[in-house]
Every structure is written in structure tokens, then in C-alpha cells.
Amino acid sequence: MSGFLEIERLGKDYGGVKAVHDVSLTVGEGEIVSLIGPNGAGKTTLFNCITGTASASEGQVRYLGQDITHLPPHRIAEAGIRRTFQHIRLFREMTVMENVLVGAHLTTSSGIASGILRPAWQKKEEHAARARVLEVLEQFEERLLPRVDQKVKVLSYANQRRVEIARCLVSTPRLILLDEPTAGMNPHETQGIVELIFRLRDAGYTLLVVEHKMRLVMNVSDRVVVLDHGEKIAEGPPAEVTENPAVIEAYLGQRENAAIE
Ligand SMILES: Nc1ncnc2c1ncn2[C@@H]1O[C@H](COP(=O)(O)OP(=O)(O)OP(=O)(O)O)[C@@H](O)[C@H]1O
């Protein structure tokens, strides 16, 4: 179990605010671990520290035994860790294909569209990259494939979230961090993401998921880690964690987040 992702005594301060304080946790290969907690608990900050978007003030993040704590985001991505964002970050004027290609760093310096005099190897590489994107899009229940050449800005919010996940998958990472993957989705769409999460696990991916929808958390998680005010207050199997008095107390007054639907 250990040795895959290990977070040791991690801390992140913003001015005087301890967004994350003394958090340790491990994620074993092939696990689905959910990170929950009320608003402002530090979940996204922890994601940011793992993926290099924020630099930890204290502690260490190790991935496959390697210290990645202060590596830049692109190096962490290359090492096999990919993420989605709570607030969708896509190129709205670009197509689904182009957005997903970006995730693989497969657009060359000459650019997909501009290179008229591209050498044969480059065309071959581009062809392979597009084929890989189509293979990834097939996993999204016919939602994305028919829209592959549409601009992202015309897609529904749920489909934009799917494009973000596809962009993660295209480079075949080993660890995927999903930050509220079902935000803004209806129950049917949410169920589609639950099924996708299981398919990803079956395909060998390891997942760390920030999610507010408790039913989803209960369904998909092997283990749940609970943060409150930047600190880890509980960890364990989902059924056990939701019975934990400290967790119930942390959510009191924030019932809308608990969203026990
Ligand atoms: N860039 C930043 N600058 C200053 N303070 C920040 C920054 N990012 C986060 N914080 C603070 O750190 C704390 C944790 O925020 P974070 O966004 O990590 O929580 P969260 O659990 O993801 O919340 P939510 O569920 O609302 O997304 C909050 O008090 C927040 O205001």
C-alpha cells in the first residue's frame, strides 16, 4: 500500500492562514481515496501542494519513493500525476480534440494547425496523438466523441468537466486527482462519473477525489480522509468515517456541504 503516494506532515501557510497543517496520509496503488471536509478545510490546497500548483511550506510529498515536494507542476505531471480543477480550466475557444491534445503535451512547437510543411515524423506523431485522444473519448458514453471538433465553449458544463478528465487521461498517468468532478452535474450525470471512476480503477489508475456529494463518496471510496480547518480529523472506510463524532461536528452548520442526498 505505502510507497505510492506518501504525504508527510504537510503544511501550507498563506500569510497567517494555515490552509493545511501537519497533514499526513498515504494512497496505495489502485486505491480510490476521497478527501472531504467543509468549505475552506484545505482540500484544494492539499491538491495544489501534491501537483506543484502551490509550494508546501512544510513537510514532504513522495511519489513512488521520490521527493516531489518542490518540483514544478509540469515535472509532477510528467512523473505520472494528473489533475482536474475545481473551476474548469479549459481553452474555451479551442475544440475538444485540441484541449485534450494539450493534456498530452502533444502539440508541437510548430502547432497543430500551422505546420503546412511538417516533416513526415511529425505528421505520424500527430496522427498517433489524435488516435489516442479518440480512444480516450470513447470512455465517455458517447458524450464527447460526437463533439470532438466542437469548441469547448459551446459544451454543457458537465461535458466540459468530462473534457478536463479526458485531458488527464490522454497521457496515461498513474495517479489522477479529481477536484469536485461532479460539481454542477445532475444525479444522472453524477452516476456516469461514478461509473467512470470505477472503470478507471479497473483500468489500473489510482484516484484521489475531492467531493462534496456524500452518496458518491460512500459509493466509490476505499478510504476517506477528512480535513477540517486544514487538519486531518479522521480517516477510514466511508461508513466508519461518517459515524465519527468529530466529522459530524465539523459538518454541523454546513449541512449544505454534507449534501447527504
Ligand atoms: N491562494 C490563497 N491565498 C490565500 N488564502 C488561500 C489561498 N488558497 C486557499 N486559501 C485559504 O486556505 C484555506 C483552505 O482553502 P481551500 O480552498 O484549500 O479549501 P477547500 O477545502 O478546498 O474548500 P472548498 O470546499 O470551499 O473548495 C481557506 O481559508 C482559504 O481561504
UniProtKB/TrEMBL annotation:
Any GO CC annotation of this UniProt entry: plasma membrane
Pfam family of the protein (one): BCA_ABC_TP_C
Keyword Manganese: no
InterPro entries (alphabetical): AAA+_ATPase, ABC_AA/LPS_Transport, ABC_transporter-like_ATP-bd, BCA_ABC_TP_C, P-loop_NTPase
Gene3D superfamilies: P-loop containing nucleotide triphosphate hydrolases
Classification via CDD domains: ABC_Mj1267_LivG_branched
Signal peptide: none
Keywords annotated in UniProt: ATP-binding, Nucleotide-binding, Transport
GO biological process terms held by the UniProt record: D-alanine transmembrane transport; L-alanine transport; L-isoleucine import across plasma membrane; L-valine import across plasma membrane
Domain ABC transporter: 5-254
Superkingdom in the source lineage: Bacteria
Protein name as annotated: Branched-chain amino acid transport system ATP-binding protein
Naturally occurring in which organism (per UniProt): Ruegeria marina
